[in-house]
Amino acid sequence: MLQARSFRFAATADHAEEASLQAGEAGDRLFEHLISETHAIAVGVAVVATAANALNDWQRAIRPSDIARFAPDDAPLRMLLQVLIEHDAIDEALTPGLLAFLDDIAFASAGLNAFLDDCEALSAPRAAILHAHRLQTCWRALARDTKTVVLDLEHAPGASLPDLHRQNARVVSALLSGAANGFKPCLDEAGRLYVPPLPQKRRAPRRAVLQNCLMHGPNGLQTGFVRDASAGGLRLGRVSGLKRGDRIRVDFVSGRQFHGTIQWVTGASAGMRFDVPLSPGDALVAL
Fold it and tell me: Angle, nearest 10°, between helix axes 13-54 and 95-122?
């Protein structure tokens, strides 16, 4: 779409200059969204690394469903990075590091999923004994790598970011440093996982949907409620009989259907991850 703008206004020098400015502004906005999504992932990494550091701590029994709920969602970052690469709107020197970062998230997430599966199969305490060392090693390393990515983006050539984003980077870097060093920066006084407040949140971390839906799952058809959506999935309400790992299809009143996998369940709420992430321009999540 950025290239299409350039072609449309190429008839005159003035129009070409205007198109170049528009494309540049659009690229800046996308890059700002990229940084916002990276910060959101960084917070998730800090929370999960905190949980890993707290495993086998008899004073802090963290529910596996809470850990799953805070697991970082990298789908929006993948989609934004793809768009930025396609439109040459990101410094080429940053791309390899971001792609490697996404691979690191996938590797760490696979280990987390194995732990969560064993929590259901064996019990949380037994799973913690089996997986604690591996999870701590993996997520502490990811916390260090994530901090590097956050700082690289902050100092990217030509990056002109609002001051709140730079404040975010400092807060997130401190959380990541603590988690990487074995501390628990994302546990409150009661021993519960939480997300510390950031100076600048994502402009639209999730889009409110607030409509009824039909859910087709292992136990047949049931009615439900879609609370909100992101590029990576849906947050569902009024669910029953679902468990982590269940494959489901969600039907909207409009006729749209979404296929995915349940990532976490807490009471009557659940998180569903799409099989195929939505594009940034999809009407369900468009900014």
Answer: 30
